[in-house]
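Open question from group meeting: does this chain pack into something compact, or does most of it stay loose? Before anyone orders reagents, we agreed to write out a predicted structure and look at it together. Recording both the input and the output here so the notebook holds the full record.
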Amino acid sequence: MARINREPSPENSTTEDADRAEEANASTPEERRISEAARARAFARGFTQMYRWVCEHREIMTEVVRTNCSGLTLRALLQSTRYYT
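Structure tokens returned:
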């Protein structure tokens, strides 16, 4: 069974805290732009952390998908959806 924790990793906690503080204090358009960039960096860090976790726990994730997705009917779209009626 896989368990996912939503805790920041120790190596990025100070950067994430700084990004959150930066976002909370944004008042001018330039500060908001910087804040949006900080949010994008935080999103990218989170994606990277999760991707690494999935890669490191590949066998567990494969079993989770097999267990939870067996018996599902899948549909493949081979062309743009406008061709399907």
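Observations to bring back to the group:
The helical segments are 13-24, 29-56, 58-69.
The radius of gyration is 19 Å.
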